[in-house]
Amino acid sequence: MDKNNQANHLKKEILIKTIKAFLSDDFGENTRLIPFEMRPKGSEVPYRCCIYKEREILRNRIIATLGFPIEGCDERILLSNYAKWAQEREKPDEHTLTVLESACKGCVPNRIFVTDLCQGCVARPCLENCKFGAISIVNGKSQIDSSKCKNCTKCIQVCPYHAIVKIVVPCENACPVDAISKDEQGHARIDFDKCITCGKCVSACPFGAIHEKSQIIDILTKIKQGKKVVALIAPSIAGQLPCNIYQLKTAMLKCGFSDVLEVAQGADVTAKNEAKEFAERMSEGQKIMTTSCCAGYNNLVDKHLNEIAPFRSETKTPMYYIAEICKEKHPDAVTVFVSPCVAKKSEAQKNPNVDYVMNYEELGALFVAHKIELSELEETPYEIESSREGRNFGITGGVAKSVEVADNGKSEIKPHLVNGINKESIRALKNFAKKGECEFGNLIEVMCCEGGCVGGNDCLNNVRTATKAINEFTKDSKPIV
Amino acid sequence: MNKVIVKICMGTTCFVMGASELQELTDIIPEKYGDKVEVVASTCLDFCSSNEESKAPYVMVDYDVISKATVEKVLEAIDGKLKNGQE
Fold it and tell me: B18: which chain A residues are within 8 Å (Cβ-Cβ)?
């Protein structure tokens, strides 16, 4: 779904208000009041049946923003208590996504449906083309027997009146691995054994019913306690806010971070190691290698696509290298990975060098709450400038290109880009694994989101303008070799 | 006839709340209206301090303020201005 929508707007508004409450002198009480402030007595009821349900749903959204699962939350407990517990928590919750049941519409199940536009024609191509005998003519019009229909959509394609439609459940439709489905009550449930944390359901739900559990309060608490909190900013950030990365560093220092490092610096290590590994694998006779920097893809391989694991690069991710560099330099630092997507939260949980993840929406909300005008800030330099290739990691093709440049003509590299994980690209990857080769290339770059990390579920900017901004910024950066 | 001036607020609040989409206007407007309309991406217009971030992003079309601005809303406002100017 387009980022420009009211559910997304609402989530960001709540983030800003929660952070403002944290920065105020009474976090608990001011958090408790947010639903009443957003829907005061007598105000209009924009989305739900009544003002009480509006407030209750806002309350649930705040619970997720405070980092708690909504599934198990207790209506009797005040938000001020949740706010208190959020500050006392030592580790963020294990699963990163949570379903807001009261906001979930309980969409009608996925099915093919004949609308009133059916003209009851003589040709009846729907009836003729249905392989499963699911279509019959009732009162002169087509009807589908859902017990026989296999959702093949053939009838939709052949109807001359466009009278047949596919009714979709947006979250189920967006999930590439069937990890989200409706329970007996019709509400969405996530199967965390299958979930690859790609965040596609979060972006897809028109009711904003799937939330990330935010770690923002954990991070702000560490800053408030005077800990040395270091931000590691992912390369795709460059096109996300109305400032350059040097002004961004200034802004983050103003918010209390003690240092900011570019993850692109880690990407430079990834690119060089991956180029070496590629050359080795090809000399050993392998015909393909896939990249390994995307957390969504790595989860996919580990949970659903084991057959491609032997072809996946063993090289670590940019997050891994930069966090290692950071902890070597500051062993006492609390590290915060600043991320375009929720998938990186699952990667961070497996990496002891990364303490927290903050996404771009949360970062933007933090600046709004602090009333920081980004475009007016001075620039702060980075101790180490990253390369153009490392800084391009967040756009589709950027990783493959960086390996090519780092290889410097030693190997014959032919990149093939998997630009977005979906059912179709999963089938293609399975096929490459089965054959041990790929007709389109030998270096397969896999990005879970379309457009690359700039298409991540937590990005603020749209893919087109974000990509343009990154290209503009990196054209003057130094080459990797 | 005077030019219609469109100012898109690129302050932090407006950008975070959705002005990123509005950047498209800097391409769309010259294409659609030529030199009849001038579009500028502005630094913070300061509407967010008096009102709330809930109404961001803001765009100004001449002296009219559009809150919760979208590409469609802005184009509609421009069309309205141009039509009035002709009458």
Answer: 3-4, 9
Whether A364 and A279 share a structural domain: yes
Q: Which of A4, A373, A464 sits opposite B18 (nearest CB)?
A: A4
Contact list, B57 vs chain A (CB under 8 Å): none
Inter-residue contact A202 to A170 (CB < 8 Å): no
Distances (CA, A) of A309 to A197, A226, A457: 18, 42, 25
Does residue A481 belong to any structural domain of this protein? no
pLDDT of residue A311: 97
pLDDT in tens, A47-84: 889 999 999 999 999 999 999 999 888 889 999 999 99
Contact status, residue A235 vs residue A267, Cβ threshold 8 Å = yes
Percentages helix, strand, coil for chain B (3-state, rounded to 5) are: 55, 20, 25
Q: Is pLDDT of B87 > 60?
A: no
**In the A/B pair of chains, how many CB contacts fall below 8 A?**
66
Q: How far is Cα of residue A225 from the mean position of the Cα atoms in its chain?
A: 29
Inspect the interface and report whether the beta carbons of B43 and A373 lie closer than 8 Å: yes
Tell me, what's the pLDDT at A377? 96
Q: Are both A71 and A179 inside the same structural domain?
A: yes
**Chain B residues near any Cβ of chain A (below 8 Å):** 10-13, 15-21, 23-24, 43-44, 49, 53-54, 68, 70
CATH of the domain at A38: 3.30.70.20
CATH of the domain at A398: 3.40.950.10
Q: Is residue A291 part of a domain?
A: yes
One-letter amino acid of A36: F
pLDDT score of A327 more than 80: yes
- From A324's Cα to the closest Cα of chain B, the distance in A is 31
Test the A interface: residue of B8, B15, B43, B71 with most A CBs within 10 Å: B15
Give chain B's domain count. Answer: 1
Domain with A317, as residue range(s), is 218-474
Q: Domain total for chain A?
A: 3
Say whether A226 sits in a helix, a strand or coil. coil
ipTM value for the complex: 0.90
* Structure confidence at residue B1 as a pLDDT band (50, 70, 90): low
| Domain match, A54 and A101 both | yes
The residue among A414, A107, A380, A362 whose CA lies nearest residue A220 is A362
d(CA A230, CA A335): 5
A451 in a domain, yes or no? Answer: yes
Q: What is the pLDDT of residues A273-324, one digit of tens each?
A: 999 999 999 999 999 999 999 999 999 999 999 999 999 999 999 999 999 9
Q: Which residue has the higher pLDDT, A114 or B84?
A: A114
Domain check: are A117 and A24 in the same one?
Answer: no
User: Do A152 and A90 share a structural domain?
Assistant: no
The parent domain of residue B22 ranges over 4-86
Whether A338 maps to a domain, the answer reads yes
With beta carbons under 8 A apart, name residues in chain A contacting B20.
3, 240, 460-462, 465-466
Answer positive or negative: Cα dihedral of A370, A373, A377, A380. Answer: positive
Instruction: For residue A348, give the 3-state DSSP assignment.
Output: helix
- Whichever domain contains B69, its CATH number is 3.40.30.10
User: Chain A residues with CB inside 8 Å of B11's CB?
Assistant: 242, 373, 375
Same domain, residue pair A157 and A263: no
